[in-house]
Specification:
about 70% helix, globular, single chain
């Protein structure tokens, strides 16, 4: 059953996170398939590779004097915002036919993108 979503979404941030988490394996498959597909533009392949490298590198900003909870939380929030922004950019610059061909989640790609946008916006409004 496909949900009808529009922004602002009438779904809580917590529920949106759950839906996005359910779609992460599909997103990883999508990125792998885009990397293997020769029709994928080269710059998209660079963005996918760069995001994977960003996630795998253990480098993060560490504030020695700011060990309180809110400042430690910023280390994770900035990663989430960067990843959501890069994923949105990949979605925006990849031909729609390729995305639809390789997406295999029960939630449509448009609805999943709306959830990403909602969470990114909610986090930015929170900060």
């Amino acid at each position: 059953m496909e949900k009808e979503l529009s922004y602002p979404l009438d779904i809580s941030t917590k529920e949106a996170f759950k839906e996005i988490a359910r779609g992460i394996p599909c997103l990883l498959k999508l990125f792998y398939r885009l990397l293997c597909d020769e029709r994928t533009p080269r710059q998209i392949k660079w963005w996918i590779g760069g995001s994977a490298l960003y996630l795998l590198l253990p480098v993060n900003l560490k504030f020695r004097n700011l060990k309180r909870f809110p400042m430690q939380l910023l280390n994770y929030v900035d990663d989430i915002i960067v990843i959501f922004t890069v994923v949105q950019r990949i979605f925006k610059q990849t031909p729609e036919a390729l995305l639809e061909e390789h997406w295999d989640h029960d939630l449509s790609l448009t609805d999943w993108r709306n959830l990403l946008f909602k969470i990114k916006t909610d986090i930015q409004n929170f900060i």
